[in-house]
Every structure is written in C-alpha cells, then in structure tokens.
Amino acid sequence: MNKIDKNHIWHPYSSATNPLPTFEIVGAKGVYLELATGEKIIDGMSSWWSVIHGYNNPRLNAALHTQIEKFSHVMFGGLTHAPAMQLTQKLLSIVPQNLQHVFYSDSGSVAVEVAMKMAMQYNYAAGRPQKQSFATIRGGYHGDTWNAMSVCDPVTGMHSLFSRSLPCQFFVSRPQSTFHGEWHEEDLNEVRELFETQHKTIAAFIVEPIVQGAGGMYFYHPQFLRELAKLCKEYDILLIADEIATGFGRSGKLFACEYAAVQPDIMCTGKALTGGYMSFAATLCTSEIAYTISNNPPFVFMHGPTFMANPLACAVACESINLLLESSWQKNIQRIETQLTELLQPLAMHHAVANVRVLGAIGVVEMKEAVDMHRIQPLFVENGVWLRPFGKLIYTMPPYCISDEELQALARGIMRTITSYS
Ligand SMILES: *Cc1c(COP(=O)(O)O)cnc(C)c1O
Q1: For residue 158, what are the contacts with CB-CB under 8 A and spacing of at least 6?
Q2: Hey, whose CA ends up nearest to atom 10 of ligand 1?
Q3: In 3D, which of 53, 51, 27 has the Cα closest to residue 41?
C-alpha cells in the first residue's frame, strides 16, 4: 500500500492507525476500474450511486471540454450562465410538477442542509416560528454535515457521540411493510401519534422515498409514503424527499416518489445528478415555499455557496440527463432488475445469508452477521469486482451501461467472495 496514503490521508469513515487496505486506481472506462497492479475490476457501486453511465463517457467528457474552453467557473451572486439555465429547464421537465424553484449546491449533505433551512425559513415566514424541529423514520441516511446528521438513524448515525451539540429530532420506526410485501396500516400509528402531539413544533418530515440507502438498504411499501404525505398535509408539516440516492432511474422510476405518486414540498438530488464527474447537488421546492420566503422578512433565502451552480458541474449534469432520457432507461433498469434477481437469488440458500432483495438496479445480500471488512474487501478484488459492504450488507448498484455478461461476472464475483469468506 502506498505509504503516503496509509500514513497521511483520511478515507471515508477510516482509522489513521488501523486503516483498511486501499487500492490505487489508474484508469476507468465503462464499468471497469483499472488498478495500479494492472487488473481491471467491475465497479458494482457506481462510485456510490453516481456513475450511472459508466466511466470516461465520451458524451460527458465532451460536455466538460466544451464548457471548460468557455469558462470553468463564475460566482453565482449577480451572474448567471447557460449551463445553469439549461440544466434547470431539463430538471423542471422531469421532477414532480409542483417543484418550480431550484437551489444548486456542492454536495448531497449541503442540499439536505439547504432543504432543512428552507423548511425552517418558510415556517418562520408563514408565521409559525415555533416549528423548529424535524421528524424522520429510523434507518435513514441524509449526509454527514451537522443537521443532515441529526436526521440520520440515531444508532448508525452515532447520535450518542455527538448528542450534546446535535439538535434533537423526532424519530418514528421505519415501516415494517416491505416494498414487495403486504401493506400493514399499523405502520402509520407512530406517525399519527407524533403528529397529534407535536405538529406545532415540527417544520418538516424528511425521508428517503421507498429506498433507505446507506442507513440499511431497505425497500419499504409505497403506501407508507402515500399516507405519510397525506398526514403531512393535514398537519401543516412539509414533506422533504431526499432523492439523492434514488433519483434518476435507480429505483426503476425516474424518482422513487413516483411509486407513491407523491409530490414532495422539497426534494434533494445529487449523486446520479452529476453523472459521476464532480461534486454537485440541487434542492428543489414549490412556488408556495419560494414565494412565502421571499414575501416576508428577511425577503431572501439565506444561503449562497461559493461554488453555487458551477458551470462545469451544470454542463455535465445536463448532458448526463440527456443521455439518460435518450436511452430506453426504463427497459434497461428492468433488465438489470431481472438479471440481478435471477443471479443473486440462489444466495438466499447460503447458510451465512439472511436475505436477498432487489429493486430497480439495486441488489442487496444481507448477511446474518456483520462482515469483516479487512478480510472481505481484498476478496472482492481478487474475484474481479468492486463492492463496499457495510455492517451486514453486501450490495450493488452497477452503472446502467453494464452488459448482461458483465452483470453475470459481477454476480459471480459476489458469490465466490461470499463462498470463500464464510
Ligand atoms: C449520499 C447521500 C447523501 C449525502 O450526499 P453527499 O454528497 O455524500 O454529501 C444524502 N442523502 C442521501 C439519501 C444519500 O444517499
């Protein structure tokens, strides 16, 4: 392992004294990552949901080249540009219709912070300043910055560690009704109770629609989202849909909210929005929210990142959406879903496996016990695939351009790894 990396560089959730092995990448094309040792392995993670069209995509590269020759960045205070306007037009044509105003930022976590600030400022402007807290379901993940962290699952989000300075939010159990299972009305009991007693203090309810990602790779029943949206309306609580992981086709719908035909008041997007090229995110809201904030003191929305609406990021995001919409993405995601289901299902019989589940282009193998990352990570690489499990969860969300043969190789790599691991 490279000494400078091992001794001086933090990796995500890493130890400086007992770091996990890291693998140096020297190239990447399509679904393949090329290691410094010369091997090429299949990326089953799409670099954390973002590289939906594969690496080194000629159309995305060209979009960046074209923009970089014009200008790479300008401040967004008082200035604007074609990439931001084109992307906005494109976004508004595909998101739920009620969303009409877009706020660009640099990362998913910031998009969540912006959404929470919007909800708070809206309620303040609407004369409900006592609405200061947020509610969510357990098992969620919304990012690593302070307020985003406060609505992550309290256990995996390490709330105890930060409890003295983390704002205290309301948590209800995640729905027991799974996406493919039956709907159980009782799943809403806690939400109802919470809203009845606390609605005056809750500004918004934030959820990952249908798919809980980094908090547990769990697919829940669309009826929960539908009923939750209704209850939110009834109690004047805004609904924030965090589509950062699910957006842009991953779940089988362009946005997972569509499974429940729900129009959120605020929506966060990121990850796949970027095409996997550079850090970027967008928070969208309704005109009701935008106008209420703007027609009451302080008459402006109080946020403005230095790299807001970076033209390079906008240009590549816009081209990434073009690529997606030009493809028969729905059929393609269905193909991946069918293949992943067929290929991974046999693992359900394995003695170390608790559950196998697939939705859209997301495949999950839940183990009975948490995996030892020091042992399993190199095994995946030996078997020709790149996966990054956490806890008991081995999961894959490959680039959409993955072929049937590559999907088979990916599944084979997962199977071989699990077999030799346990
Ligand atoms: C990844 C993720 C985030 C955070 O995005 P970053 O770009 O890592 O800050 C927020 N919400 C969800 C649902 C995510 O999957």
Answers
A1: none
A2: 142
A3: 27
